[in-house]
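Q: Structure tokens for this one, please.
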Amino acid sequence: MSTYGSISETRSLARGGGQHLLVAVDEPDNAELLSTTLELAGYRIRTAGSGTEVVSRLAEQRFELVVIDAELPEMDALEQGGRLVTHRPPVLLLTAWDALDRLLPELGAGERDYVTKPFRIAEVLARIQVLLRARGGDRDGALHYADLVLDDTTCQARRGRRTLDLTPAEYRLLRHLLINAHKVLSKEQISRYVWGDFRGDNAMEQLISRLRRKVDQEGVALIHTRRGFGYWLGRAAG
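A: Here is the predicted structure, written as tokens:
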């Protein structure tokens, strides 16, 4: 497995809060690389080198997330033994192909994502953070990105000290962008999440425009357009 990035870049991206992660990669060098960088990023790591070991580790201990290589030996053990595991942590799959329907349904509990190989360490860290947020990994029960906070218990959003007056559609849109931070979402993907069907470009552009005015009224812009592809939330590089 080839990777881009270095251990040093994790120091500026470290956002872990001591969560327990299981890293399942059979190649010793790559397992050590991922374990070391994730530990530097603030996570507690255990490793596994096969599907059988993954099931064994999950039976022994609760993990907030599993990072697993699609080429891990004994992958069939996950489907066979996964039914015996009482908790279902989110799964981040390291894969050479874009196939979400192959993301270990017996192991995952709905929170699943993937990073294609060769991958950047920074991308792995970003996707882990998104999965943990979606699972409710923040201790206060809120979703965070920079100074943006969404509280699902009250359906309220804040940017810094400023409360955002959002409609239900705007709140759903912002939440979807936040839990998929740094990932470009198409208009159709967003529309089906917000409204349950595709309402066309004009409706989506108007909704994005209204939300952007409220969220990015002050401070650094967080909502961005990638022309021809869709929208994403995060701090732009540069």
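A few notes: The chain has eight helices and 13 strands. The mean pLDDT is 79.
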